[in-house]
Amino acid sequence: MQALLVMLTVALIAFSLFQFVGDPVSNLLGQEATQEQRDALRKELGLDQSFVAQFAAFVGNAVQGEFGLSLKQGRKVSTLIAEAFPATMELALAAAVIALTVGIPLGVYAALRRGRPLAQLVMALSLLGVSLPTFLIGILLIMVFAVNLQWLPSFGRGEVIDLGGWTTGLLKWETLRHLILPAITLSLFQLALILRLVRAEMLEVLRTDYIKFARARGLSERVVHFGHALRNTLVPVITITGLQLGSLIAFAIITEQVFQWPGMGLLFIQAVQFSDIPVMAAYLCLISLIFVVINLAVDLLYFAVDPRLRIDDAKGGHL
Amino acid sequence: MSAASLPPSRWRRWLASDLLYAFRRSPVAMLASAIAAACIVCALFAPQIAPHNPLDLASLNLMDALQPPAWEEGGSRTFLLGTDGQGRDILSALFYGARISLFVGLSAVLLSVAVGVSLGLMAGFLGGRVDALIMRVCDVMLSFPSILVALLIDGVGKAVFKDASDGLAFGVLIFAIALTGWVQYARTVRGSTLVERNKEYVQAARVVGVSSLRIMRRHVLPNVLGPVFVLATIQVATAIITEATLSFLGVGVPQTSPSLGTLIRVGNEFLFSGEWWITIFPGAMLVLIALSVNLLGDWLRDALNPRLK
Question: Can you tell me the ipTM of this complex?
Fold first, then answer.
C-alpha cells in the first residue's frame, strides 16, 4: 500500500517535471503554424485533456516503460536505459559481493579479537572508509593503480559481450579488469558499514545468556562463535545489506561519473546537466521502483531468517 | 550580599561542567576540535590569510600555471602547494573553497535543524493525524539515500531555473541538502517530545492556560535539544561531503565560486598528466574537515550519553 503510494508520488513528481520543459506544441511546430494546426496537434498529443487524464496517460505509458525521446540524444529513453541497466547492475552486484565477503569476516575478527592491535587497525581503517567520500576514493585508486602503477584501466567498460540484450563484462579478463577499480570504489563505504555493524552486533550477541549457556554446555568456541553468535548477528546485517543494495545503485552515480562507466548513473548525471527531462523522469521512476522492490524483498527475507516473525504471523499478526 | 552566595555565572558553570572536564581528558576530542577550529579560521579569514586571491582574474598569470608544490622540483616559494591550470595558487583556492564548503554545509544544517525540529515537535506534541502524516513522509524519505534525494532536488531545481543567478543556485543547493537531513531531527525530537509531553511541568503550563505553541517553544523545546545538538554536529560533516559530491558531479555550487568539490573536479582532469596536487590537496582538506567534525560529533555523543558514564 505504502509502496504504491510512493510510486504514484514519484510518478507525479516525474510528470510535473515535463511541465517545465516549455510548450511542446510550439517546440514541434515552430513560429509559423496556424491556430488550427496548433489545436490539432494539441488534440493529437492529448494536451487538451484534463491534468488528471494526462497524468493517467503518463502513468499508463510509464508502466509500459515508455518515456518518449531523449531531448539530447534523440533516441528512445527506454532503449538508453536498457543499454545502461546491465552496466550498473554488474557494478552494484560486484560491489555488494566484495562488501559482504570482506566485510563480514573482518567484522567477526574485530569483534572476537577486540582490543588487539590488528583489530584496532581494522576499526580505524573502517572509520576512514565511512568518512572518505566515494568520489575521493575513486580518484585515489585511479591515481595509484591506473596512473602511477598502470596496472588497471581507469575508465569505461571495455569491449563487452552482448548476450541478447544484456551486455556483460564478466566473461573476459580484458573487460573484468575494467570492473575492478569501480567495484572496489563503490564497495568501500558499504564494506566499512557492514564491518562495523557485524562487529557491534556480534559484541552484543556474545554478551547474551544463550551464548553463556552454549559455552556451559561445553560447545567448542568455533561452534559458539559461528554456529550461534554469527547466525543471530546476520538478521540485521541482511536487512541493512539489502537496503544498502539500493544505495549502491544510487552511489553508483558517483562511481560511474568518476570512472566514466556507461551505466544509468552516468546517463542520469548527463541528463541533469543538460536538463534532459524525459531521461530524468525515467530514471526517477525506475530507481524508485528498484527501491520499493528492495524494501519489499528485505521484509520477506527478514521473515525467512527470523523464526519469531513467522510464529507471530501464524497467530494472526501482520507483516 | 557577598559574591559567594550569588548563583555562579554561566562562564563559571561552564568551567566546572562535566563536559569541559571530559573534553580536557580526551586527546582525540582536543585534536579534532583544534583541526576543525583551524579549518574554520582559514575559511573565515580567507581574504586576510590567503597569499593570493584566486577569484581575482586580473592577478592570474598563465606563466605560473601547473607549478608543483614548493618542495617538489620546479616548485617555488610563492606558491606553497603549487598552482592549477590557470595559474591559481592552490593554497589560496583551498582557503576560499573551504569557506564556500563550510558556508553551504552550515546553512544546510541550520535549515534542516529548523525544519526537522519544528516538524518533530509538532508531530510529538500534537499527535494524531499530524503525527501520522509527518512520520509517513519521514519513512518515505528514509527509504531513499540522501545523496540521491539531494541530487534529484538539485537536478530538478537546475531544470526549473535554467539561468538562475548565483544566489538562487546556492539557495537551491542548500535547500536540496537540507531537505535530505531534516528527517533525523524530526524523528529524534518527536521521540523525546512524546516523553516530555506527559510530564508535570507541561501539564502545569496547560492548566495555567499557556497556548500549545508557547508550551512547545518555551517549555518542551529546550528539553529536547540535547540530542539535536549532537546530530547537528555530525550532520555538518555529512552536509559538507554531500555538497562536495554534488559539486564534483558538476551540479553543485556555481562555477564562479569554486568549493572544495569543484576544485577536486577541476583537478581530476589533470590527474592523468601527473599534476596530482591540484586534486589531492583539496581532497585532503575535505577529508580533514569531515573527519575532525565526525570525531568531534562521536565524542560529543559519548560525553553527553548518561548511559556511558
Answer: 0.74
